[in-house]
């Protein structure tokens, strides 16, 4: 065999230098692909770090605009809003969810005023408001589907009226997208979008989020009667299909990194705008390794996010959104 003649096909040629690698790259991560989840609380002048999510903070409303300003300047298209409701206003029915002056609505009004071009995504579920920590209401020891949907639908209109642009139901009740779409339309909110948490799994990886919200220690039992079994993939396709048929504009898969197969299948099957949530436990795992010096910070974060794009996600809800946007800016100057 003559030197230089074997092998004829050399895939490594396309990896030989940076410009070629960039030319042949099949996917990319841009600032437009990032959604930043944020936590806010009552009170004044306080910023607290979530213990299990180093680098993630809960801020009081008076600090919210300052907290968000940098993300807005970086051009992150949208925020996902999560209120930390005080224990005193929680009850078994999640009544506070319907209060037009609840923390969520006040935050939405404030942000819309300060940053009119920043998209606001409102999580619709009752867990920030219920004393038992479930996403719906309980009848005879069971999270009741239809009674929960009725309340969640009113919560939807309440949030949209406060300025939420995209309603994101994370409750996993059956049939809620159709009632929410109908209620929005009847209230003249025809352009309020719905990003459904269509395939949301009953996952251990939400633990740190529940710490952030203060709902974790309150949760009675688990959410397995409404969130999906991690064993299932076909079922995710049925959930997504139903939500699209009921009027969802965008769909989400959650969690992210252990569910890339679901992201890929959803995108390939339905070709709809598809989002993925890199959840709190994924953030906590990465940060733990990064803080220990076991993983390189920048590379671990950027590789995890690029993988979502390769799987087919249009966008990623990630607690790393701001630092990822900064790194994208630095690299491409965009
Ligand atoms: C509420 C909700 C949860 C998350 C987003 N919306 C928690 C849950 O379902 O228990 C989790 C987000 C995260 O872990 O980062 N329904």
Automatic annotation (TrEMBL):
PROSITE patterns: D_ALA_DEHYDRATASE. The keyword Lyase applies. The keyword Secreted does not apply. It catalyses: 2 5-aminolevulinate = porphobilinogen + 2 H2O + H(+). It comes from the Bacteria. Keywords: Heme biosynthesis, Lyase, Porphyrin biosynthesis. It holds the Pfam family ALAD. GO terms for molecular function: porphobilinogen synthase activity. Its EC number is 4.2.1.24. It is an enzyme of class 4 (lyase). Pathway: Porphyrin-containing compound metabolism; protoporphyrin-IX biosynthesis; coproporphyrinogen-III from 5-aminolevulinate: step 1/4. SMART domains: ALAD. Homooctamer. Belongs to the ALAD family. This is Delta-aminolevulinic acid dehydratase.
